[in-house]
Design goal:
The complex is a heterodimer. By secondary structure, chain A is α/β, with parallel strands linked by helices. Helix content of chain A is about 45%, strand content about 20%. Chain A is built from twelve helices and eleven strands. The longest helix of chain B is centred in the middle third of the chain and has 26 residues. Chain B is globular and about 100 Å long. Classes of the chains: A alpha/beta, B alpha/beta. Chains A and B meet through helix 3, strand 7, helix 6, strand 9 and helix 10 of A and strand 11, helix 6, strand 13 and helix 9 of B. Chain A: One of its GO terms (molecular function) is ATP binding.
Chain lengths: ~280, ~775
């Protein structure tokens, strides 16, 4: 970011525009730097406003003539899993789950009518932060890459680890995670896991939890399409497929998980749209 | 809580656990008669349950056979007292560390006389692991029961049978525990069990419950992830680390991102935006304490959030939390409470249970005892034999967290008769029997604890005197003294140990302790003598009342009720007088009474009411035996009957102080009937009905009354309730709101209480209330 501000100064951005629209938490944090170093006056826009405007705009423009939104068919099956376009022609109401370092969940009823339903602090930052502590990795991409090679069932305690199979009393499948990191209570098992396993378990834990909270919000708000966006999902097919599967399984097919191309850019697009409106 | 020391003797390592010596009569009590067993083996604690019978001495009263005898002898007592053995049922629950399991099984096997027992119900994760050991040691077949079914059964049982079972937890508040009065209908509720994972169960009826959701982020996540991050192996140590850490060093807060609050959404700057968000910026070391704290917040918040989402979806506002993650840990109760308040915006209350650790064992036991129909009975917590809730705050009691060697006990007595609400309560769900909450009111607590300490010598002496022929009475009385003294000391430091501390609970604890050492009725002889004296005066009192004009008589009757109430061995000021002036009589008592206007005085309204039509039926809760019941209550009853009002006279089922018991009231009524035709015909025609309250307390809990009484109250369309005496009308029920007219009267025989109420010793409370139309 300092490099970007420096570039803005070198290229004399300030002579091109008097107003520089910005959004996101950093807009607040870096406002002073933009002003003193870049001589740029920031027009701070609400992050979520921008996000929603962005996603709706991009979808309406289309992506090379194709829909922006997509979903997964057979997400649990590596062979059959397919990414298919989804036409968001009836976008409202929709539940928008924005997974950045934390998670915000918004119920969107129209272009201008939305509310933040809830949020959770267990987000991308938690995944990356815990991975740094557990594996010593240094980048998000590295953490994801490790996760892709790991086996979370060595770390997590599954229903079948407790009941030997499905827990029929509550119709819980044996493969479901009963306790995330539950096996790590045992010293022997702690010694037997790899960093990759831990990264994978962290990813699964955070992803499942987001799916679970999103599903409950969708039920409470009576919304059945859920769009997941945010940087956490960038190049993160594991999480997307898991979200798709978990939402479908636990809602017995009632809820659909949707994703979007360019999930990281909606905020910027929204900010740009806002700028175009300015005189 | 009994300590269980290791006997050295060259044992080392693992074998150390096998060499403990258990003080048998302290922990596995009544094992000789035990007949049903259940065991719940968790990750670190074992909970054992068994049903046993206790043999108690009970004082029975019986009329003399007067047939063929002439006039009564001057000094003959009015009835005879005999001490009999009675067998009552009791449930025992014991909680101990898994390391003691083998030693405990050995002990049980050695002391298990009863051989009828063939099966032991087992639940909990460890039931599988220890199955062979149990079968081999006890020679009992292990029947495994479903964990969640047991948990729910246990939960229903404690919520129904133990008053003040549920509490809210408020850190830094005094008291930190705020107990809930039992709701008359416990269903529906949500149980969030936080074990290694989280199960969220909706409980709709006794047998109907449904797993509505769960989460894999639970106690196992805290423990497992915590162990990886901090290299700390023990759950308790992790919690201890967490209690000292600063999560803001590890978590990214809203303020870290926005430089302050995110105002458009009203998110405060302190809010955690991303758990462990700061640890993503590598090359920095984080302290174990800070990471543990961050982890604790992450998990507690997540569980709280999910619990709120489920509560909202199913429209439930009562959410109980349990499981090893919670189990008495102030740290987790605090973070869960915080999270629930935050996410529900105060609409949902996080509730915890005093006996949460026992739910599985209780449920497993109930599963095995289904043919005995334990759910048909009412049960009561025995304060004498139960350890009570301990403050486990690590700051206050650092050593208490290291639980090794401690055994925690819970005992429940089966009550003779099922207990229900008085149908006349205005709002059963908001009824609180007790007037002063001593957990809340530190001044009052200090006073009453001291008062009970000071009265202890007298109680011990009275107990010894009540059994002159017993060779071990002195020894037992000493044990009683020690037990009750220890209870009082526990309550000084942990007033919340048995739920809300009240004068009632202090009195009941004393009764339980007396019973424990076989002093079933220390006042039986005193009561017998006083009943004898009062019976002799009955006719004279009636004659003098009958000679009065109507209005004068009404006042004399009320004064008689009040004067009778002065005779109370429960009040120190009075027991001193009675002790040194045994001839202290009815007339003297009347003179002691405050002149009108009384401290609370609605006599005018009462008199006015009496000029109106008679009541349909009056329910009277009697207090003391002797002068109170015979010269105070009976003449009053007689007047009501004369007016055409039916009377239900309710006396305690079991003895407490010098309170008249149901059995004594039967004899007294019979003797009075022999002298008074009005009473005689009323008894014969069922216009005067004698019933028992179901209680053995000097106080009165209108939400736990004998079912027969409740039925009768409804059948007879009772429209007046009379409650007399300090214990029933002031310590309890002073603020009780009823759906019909009520009369609460008492003489204040305690100067501190008199002071509190703005009066003085022997001030009179006469509170006549008519419910708003």
């Amino acid at each position: 970011m300092p490099a970007f501000i420096q570039m803005g100064r070198d290229k004399n951005f300030s002579s091109l525009h008097t107003v520089f629209c910005a959004t996101g938490g950093g807009a607040y944090k870096f406002e002073q730097d933009f002003l003193t170093i870049g001589d740029l006056q920031l027009c701070k826009l609400d992050e979520l406003d921008c996000l929603i405007k962005g996603i709706l705009y991009i979808d309406s423009v289309g992506f090379n003539g194709r829909s922006q939104c997509y979903y997964f068919e057979n997400p649990a099956d590596s062979e059959k899993c397919q990414k298919l376009p989804f036409n968001l022609k009836n976008p409202y109401p929709l539940l928008l789950v924005n997974i950045g370092s934390g998670v915000s969940i918004l119920a969107v009823y129209s272009k201008d009518n939305y509310k933040r339903v809830t949020g959770t602090s267990l987000g991308g930052g938690t995944f990356f932060g815990l991975c740094c502590l557990l594996t010593g990795c240094t980048t998000f991409e590295e953490a994801l890459e490790m996760a892709s090679r790991g086996d979370s069932t060595k770390v997590d305690k599954l229903v079948r680890d407790i009941y030997g199979g499905d827990y029929e009393r509550f119709s819980l499948p044996g493969w479901a995670v009963a306790s995330s990191f539950g096996n790590m209570v045992s010293k022997e098992k702690r010694e037997a896991v790899t960093k990759e396993d831990l990264a994978r378990a962290t990813l699964i834990t955070i992803t499942n939890n987001i799916g679970s909270i999103a599903r409950m919000c969708a039920l409470n708000e009576n919304i059945n399409q859920v769009v997941f966006v945010g940087n956490f999902l960038r190049v993160n097919t594991i999480s997307m497929r898991l979200l798709a599967y978990a939402l479908d399984y636990w809602s017995k097919g009632q809820l659909k998980a949707l994703f979007s191309e360019h999930e990281g850019y909606f905020g910027a697009v929204g900010a740009l749209l806002e700028l175009l409106k300015l005189p | 809580m009994a300590e269980c020391g290791a006997s050295g003797g060259g044992s080392s390592g693992d074998s150390l656990d096998k060499s403990i010596t258990l003080p048998p009569d302290e922990i596995f009590r009544n094992l000789e008669n035990a007949k049903r067993f259940a065991i719940d083996i968790g990750g670190s604690l074992t909970k054992l349950a068994y049903y046993s019978t206790v043999q108690h001495k009970v004082a029975k009263v019986r009329s003399f056979d007067h047939s063929g005898k002439g006039a009564e002898q001057e000094h003959e007592p009015p009835y005879e007292i005999s001490v009999q053995e009675e067998i009552t049922a009791r449930l025992h629950f014991i909680k101990f560390e898994n390391t003691y399991i083998e030693a405990c099984l050995d002990f049980i096997k050695d002391h298990l006389v009863n051989t009828e027992t063939k099966v032991i119900q087992a639940t909990g994760g460890g039931a599988y692991k220890f199955k062979d050991l149990i079968e081999q040691k006890l020679r009992l077949r292990v029947d495994k029961e479903d964990v969640m079914t047991c948990l729910i059964k246990g939960c229903n049982f404690v919520l129904k049978n133990i008053p003040h079972e549920a509490f809210m937890y408020q850190k830094d508040a005094d008291p930190e525990f705020r107990f809930q009065t039992n709701h008359p209908n416990i269903f529906p509720y949500l149980l969030v069990n936080i074990g290694s994972g989280v199960s969220i169960v909706k409980v709709e009826t006794e047998d109907k419950f449904e797993w509505i959701g769960g989460s894999s982020i639970g106690g196992g996540t805290f423990w497992g992830l915590g162990a990886l991050l901090t290299k700390t192996k023990k759950f308790d140590e992790l919690l201890h680390l967490a209690s000292k850490g600063q999560h803001t060093n590890v978590d990214m807060l809203v303020g870290d991102i926005y430089g302050g609050a995110y105002q458009t959404l009203g998110l405060s700057g302190n809010l955690i935006a991303s758990s462990f968000g700061k640890s993503a910026t590598a090359d920095k070391e984080f302290s174990k304490e800070d990471m543990s704290k961050s982890l604790l917040h992450m998990i507690s918040n997540d569980i709280g959030q999910l619990a709120c989402l489920y509560a909202k979806l199913h429209n439930l506002d009562r959410v109980y939390f349990g499981g090893f993650f919670i189990r008495g840990h102030p740290v987790t109760m605090r973070t869960i409470t915080y999270s629930i308040n935050f996410f529900s915006k105060g609409e949902v209350q996080a509730l915890f249970l005093r006996h949460e650790g026992y739910l599985g064992a209780i449920g497993a036991f109930l599963k095995g005892a289904e043919q005995d129909n334990p759910n048909q009975y009412s049960w009561g917590e025995n304060y004498a034999g139960s350890s009570g809730l301990m403050s486990t705050s690590p700051e206050l009691y650092p050593m208490q967290r290291a639980r090794s060697g401690t055994f925690d006990l819970l005992e429940m007595d089966r009550l003779e008769r099922p207990l229900v609400d008085l149908p006349l309560l205005l709002d059963p769900s908001s009824y609180i029997p007790d007037t002063v909450d001593l957990t809340d009111d530190a001044m009052a607590r200090k006073y009453w604890l001291t008062c009970f300490e000071e009265a202890l010598d007298g109680v011990v002496n009275r107990a010894i005197a009540s059994q002159p022929d017993s060779i071990d009475a002195v020894e037992r009385a000493e044990k009683f003294r020690q037990k009750y003294w220890n209870k009082l000391q526990t309550l000084r430091h942990q007033p919340f140990a048995y739920g809300t501390l009240t004068v009632r609970s202090l009195l009941e604890t004393r009764e339980h302790c007396l019973n424990e050492f076989n002093f079933p009725d220390p006042y039986s002889k005193v009561k017998q003598r006083e009943n004898g004296i009062a019976l002799k005066c009955f006719q004279r009192v009636i004659r003098s009342l009958d000679s009065l004009g109507w209005e004068e008589r009404q006042f004399a009757l009320v004064k008689g009720l009040l004067a009778g109430n002065v005779f109370d061995w429960g009040a120190k000021a009075v027991s001193d007088v009675l002790e040194c002036e045994p001839q202290f009589g009815f007339e003297e008592a009347k003179k002691k009474l405050q002149e009108r206007p009384w401290l609370v005085d609605s006599y005018g309204e009462w008199l006015q009411r009496l000029k109106g039509p008679p009541h349909k039926c009056a329910l009277i809760f009697a207090d003391n035996s002797g002068i109170d019941i015979i010269l105070g209550v009976f003449p009053f009853v007689r007047e009501l009957l004369f007016r055409g009002t039916e009377v239900i006279l309710a006396c305690n089922s079991g003895p407490a102080l010098n309170d008249v018991t149901y059995n004594e009231s039967l004899i007294v009524a019979e003797r009075i009937a022999a002298m008074d035709p009005l009473i005689q015909s009323a008894l014969k025609e069922d216009k005067l009905l004698l019933v028992q309250t179901g209680s053995s307390s000097p106080c009165l809990d209108l939400s736990r009354l004998d079912k027969g009484l409740a039925v009768l109250v409804r059948e007879r369309s009772t429209d007046l309730v009379v409650i007399e005496g300090m214990g029933r009308a002031i310590h309890t029920n002073y603020h009780a709101a009823l759906r019909c007219e009520s009369l609460k009267l008492a003489v204040i025989k305690n100067s501190w209480l008199a002071d509190r109420l703005g009066g003085r010793l022997f001030s009179v409370i006469f509170k006549y209330e008519v419910p708003a139309k």
